């Protein structure tokens, strides 16, 4: 005689529950989260506009160092070539800094929209995701800020003796902004991989199998973020990105192992004859 085992109890925190939403509900959800993110961005921009002076002083420090080394301040300066370029620079800086200041809010809104209907456990994971992503982004930006003076000094070394080095304000800002943004995003990407693993979208083994692609992407990303002549900085950034990638793969594999143990406990016992 065959007796059936007890019915399987579904884990209320399982990410495999049905969380389908209609297209209209998705659009309403997207609109709500976009509005919240936009309000946070505007508030961040207002605050950022007030602090642009110390930020400009900070990012132009490499120019002053180059001027000191060349011994002639008049030959190394930040140049504003149009009447409105000063205001344009501050406005663009306000947008960029506003994005950074409002990052905890719009990152949370973006992730909550991508993975709707979060369980209590997934909410804890999401909070952990934001808590890890934001500091890592700022750490990456700080790394870019740390290597930036060396990059500027290296590039200034190619200016011929006796020639003036006038840095266009708009171009210089683009260089600094892209460097900080690229390095900051590079530091956050491994956190996204772990988050996708927690959501059940990618396994740890699947992440690890992409190590060859990760190496190529890391080198290309680092090469874009740094000048071609600064090979040492390029490989340093690429190495940091690879360490973060393998850390993300290792953490994801640990989570997969815990998930398999949890699922094994939820399985009903084998039917007895």
TrEMBL record:
GO terms for cellular component: TAT protein transport complex. Coiled coil: none annotated. One of its GO terms (biological process) is intracellular protein transmembrane transport. It is found in: Cell membrane; Membrane. It is a multi-pass membrane protein. Part of the twin-arginine translocation (Tat) system that transports large folded proteins containing a characteristic twin-arginine motif in their signal peptide across membranes. Together with TatB, TatC is part of a receptor directly interacting with Tat signal peptides. This is Sec-independent protein translocase protein TatC. The gene is tatC.
């Amino acid at each position: 005689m065959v007796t059936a085992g007890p019915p399987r109890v579904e884990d209320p925190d399982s990410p495999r529950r049905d969380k389908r939403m209609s297209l209209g509900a998705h659009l309403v959800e997207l609109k709500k989260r976009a509005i919240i993110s936009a309000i946070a961005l505007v508030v961040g921009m207002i605050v950022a506009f007030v602090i642009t002076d110390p930020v400009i002083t900070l990012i132009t420090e490499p120019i002053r160092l180059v001027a000191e080394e060349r011994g002639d301040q008049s030959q190394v300066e930040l140049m504003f070539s149009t009447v409105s370029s000063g205001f344009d620079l501050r406005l663009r800086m306000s947008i960029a800094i506003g994005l950074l200041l409002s990052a905890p809010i719009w990152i949370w809104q973006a992730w909550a929209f991508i993975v709707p209907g979060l369980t209590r456990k997934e909410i804890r994971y999401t909070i952990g995701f934001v808590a890890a992503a934001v500091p890592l982004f700022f750490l990456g930006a700080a790394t870019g800020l740390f290597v930036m003076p060396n990059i500027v000094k290296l590039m200034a070394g190619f200016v011929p003796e006796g020639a003036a080095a006038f840095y266009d304000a708009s171009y210089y800002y683009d260089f600094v902004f892209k460097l900080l943004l690229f390095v900051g995003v590079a530091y956050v990407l491994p956190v996204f991989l772990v988050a996708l693993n927690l959501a059940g979208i990618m396994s740890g083994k699947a992440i690890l199998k992409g190590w060859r692609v990760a190496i190529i992407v890391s080198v290309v990303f680092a090469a874009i973020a740094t000048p071609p002549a600064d090979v040492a900085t390029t490989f340093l950034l690429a190495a940091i990105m690879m360490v973060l990638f393998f850390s993300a793969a290792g953490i994801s594999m640990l989570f997969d192992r815990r998930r398999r143990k949890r699922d094994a406990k939820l399985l009903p016992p084998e039917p007895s004859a």
